[in-house]
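Worked problem 6 (solution included).
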Amino acid sequence: MENSAPTAASAVLTLRIEGMDCGGCERKVEDALGRLEGIEEVSASSVTGSVRIQPQPHTSPSHETIERTLNELGYQLAANDEKDEADASPAPWWRTAKGRLVLVTGGLLALAFVLRWALPSLGNWPFVAATVVGLVPIAQGVLAALKMRNPFTIEMLMSIAALGALTINAAAEAAVVVFLFAVGELLEGVAASRARRSISALADLTPSTARLMEEGAIREVSASSLTPGQRVMVRPGDRVPCDGRILAGASDLDESPVNGESVPCSRAPGDDVFAGTVNLNAALEVEVTRGAEDNTIARVIRLVEEAQAGKAPVARFIDRFARYYTPAVVGLALLMAVVPPLVSTMAWSESVYRALALLLIACPCALVISTPAAIAAGLSAGARRGLLIKGGAVLEQLGKLRLIAVDKTGTLTEGAPTVTDVEDWAPGQGGNEVLRLAAALERDSSHPIATSIFSRAEQLGLSIPQANGNHALSGRGVAGQVEGRELRLVAPRHLAGLADIDQGLSTRIAELEDAGKSLAVLLEGERPLGLIAVRDEPRVDAQEGLATLSRLGVQAVMLSGDNARTAAAIGDSLGIEAHGELMPEDKAQRVRDWQAAGRGPIGKVGDGINDAPALAAAEVGIAMGGGTDVALETADAALLKNRVTGIAELIDLSRATLHNVKTNVALALGFKAIFLVTTALGITGMWIAVMADTGATVLVTLNAMRLLGYRFSLGAASSGSASPYYREATS
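Solution. The predicted structure is:
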C-alpha cells in the first residue's frame, strides 16, 4: 500500500502511521502537523492508522518535513513497498515496542516486590528504580509533545502522577501505575489492530496469482500485474483474479465476497465479473477490464478507508469536548491538591495523592475513541455485506431517515420488461403458437419489448421459424412473412384501420393497459391472432424490502419517469404512493418540497445517473448498481447487492451503530464520573484510577468491535426500536 494517495481534484495526502492507536495519539498528530506551514487541514484516525492532510493551495510542506515531525512524536510511517506490506503479518504483541515495555515494566515491578520481601532494608528504592526505567519512554513522548506546544497529553499526566507519587513516598503505587499504563497502551494497540484488519482482510479475497492466456498457452502470473485487455482462465473453484468480462463459458458465481449476496448468480458471455468472486461450476475465459489497483475490491477498500478516516459530526463534537475536558480536570486536580489542606485538617500528602489520582482519571482516551471505533466498525460491517457507506456523517444520517424516495425502473423493478401474458384470439392458435410467430418477427430487433418476446419463446423451448421480408411499420410495429403467412405485430393504439377488433378484445386490451402493461397484437391480414403483454416487473424482494422499511418507521414513495398509469399500477401492486411522468429535475423538486414541508430527513434511492439531481437534493443519496462505477463513485451510499432489502439494512445498521456510540459514550463518561467522585473522596487510589481508565478504553473498543458481527433480521425490525442485532446480542 502506498504511503500517499494524492488526487488531482483535492490534493489530499494520506499517510499510514505505525503506533497511532488511541484518541490522544490522534490529537498529538493533528496538533503537530496542523502547525506546519502549508497545511490547511489535518484529520488523523487511530482506527485506520492513517492521517489525511489537506495542503493549502499552491504550497505544502515536503514529505521529509512531515516524516520528521511524526518521528519526533515517536511515530513511524508504514512500509512503502506494496508487496512487502501485503506479505507482512502483524508482529506478535511481545515483539512490538509496547509489548516490550509491558514485559520490562512488569518484570521490574515483580523484581521490586521480591526485593522488598527479601531485603526490607532497601525500602522503596526497587520501586523507584522500576518507576524511573518505565517512565523513560513515556517521558520521551512528553518532551516531543512539549516541542509541539501540546502539554495536555496522557504521557504528561502519567509522568506528573508517577513523579508526584515518588515525591510523597508512594513509590510502589507509582511503579504499578507505570506498569498498568503500559498494559493499557498495549491493549489499545491490539484492539486498534483488530479494527484495521477487519477491512484489510478484504484484500485477501483477491488471489495473488492468475492464469494468463496468451499465444495459445496458459501461464501463471501475479494478479497485480494484469492489465486491461489481457485474457485469463478461471477454473471451477478459483477466485476471479480481476474485474473483467466473460468471453467464453457459462457458470454460477458466488458473489458474496463483493456484495454479500448469498445466492450464486449465473453468468454467461458478455456478463461482467468482479475480483474476489468464486467460480463454482465451469471454466471461464475472462477479459480483464480493470487493473488490480482499480478493481472492485480495491475500490471498496479505498472508499471505506476514506470514509473511516473522515469524522462523523458526533465524533467531531467529542473531540472538541475532550479538548476542554482535559484542562478542566487538570485545574480541578490542582484545586484538590491545594484547597483541602488550607480549609481543613487534611494532610498535604493526602491531598496531593488524591490530586495525582484525579490527573490519571483526566485521560480522555476512552471518551475520544468511543465514537470513531464504533463508526469504523459499522462502516466495515456494512462493506463486508455489500452496504457501502461513504463516511461517518452519512452513517449517522441514515438512521434518522423518515422518508425514502425510490426510483421505479431498475430499483423497485428488474429494469427490463418481461412477458406477463400471452393470449390467443383465433381458433386453433394457442398461446405458444402466438408467441412463436411473434418471436419470428422480432428475431433481429433490439427493442426491449422485442427482446423480451424472443427470450420468452427461447425459454419455453419453442421452435422459432425464420421470417422473410421483415420491415418496420413506421413506428407502429413490425411486419413480415412467417411460414408463408403475412403477419404484423402492432401496438393497440395503431390497430384502427388495420384490423377488426371486437368488444371482448378491446375490453381485454384496456384491462391489461390499466395494469401498466405494454401490449403487442399479432395480426394475420385483418384478423387478430392474439396478444402479448409485457411489463417491467417488481423485483422479487421489493415487497419484502418495502414492508421492512415500514416496520422501521420509514415511509417509501415511488418517483418514476414512466407514464402515470404504469407507475400507479406498480405502486398499487407494492402498496406504496407513486408519482409518474417525472423528469429528473421534477424528482429533485419533489424532494425539496418534502423537505420544506418538514417530512425529512429524506433519502433518495436510484441508479445514480438520471436520478443525479434528486440524489444530490436528498439528505442521503443511495445508489443501486451491483458494483458498477456509478454505484461506487456517486451518491452517499451504494447497495452492491442490488436488492431493495438493502435499504432497510442500511438504516438498521446506522441505528445499531448510533446505539453503540451512545453506549460507548455512556460507559466512558460513567467510568469517569464514578472514579472522579471516589478518588476525590479518597475511596480509590492511583492504580485503581489507571485501571479504570484503561479498562474503559478497552471496554468501549471491544463493544464497538461487536458491530463487526452485525446481522440484520428482516423479520425482527420494528418501528422505533433498537437494531435486532442488539436485542439478540444482549438477550
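Discussion: Confidence is low (pLDDT under 50) at residues 1-10, 80-88, 716-731.
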